[in-house]
Amino acid sequence: MNKSEKRRQMIADMHQPLHQQIYKERGYRVEPMQGIVKDIFDLNRCWMRGNDNNRWLFAAMGLAVQMHQLIAYRNKKSTWQIKEQVLG
Question: With bands split at pLDDT 50, 70 and 90, how would you rate the model's confidence at 44?
Fold first, then answer.
């Protein structure tokens, strides 16, 4: 299998005990912000590697969600039910 230098480095990093523990925690750690963003924008899978524009897009999406969560919180409404407000 032809693996790039970056991939070989990532594999080596993943075999370190600290990184193995962090990766193991992904199975039970709750990440509500990612869940909300994925639900609102109907994302099944998203990759953060690659094009820098994707990072800006995800940052903008996260900011939009957080702004509408703050508005909902101030209005004493559910911060989870903001899909219509975010999408317009």
Answer: low
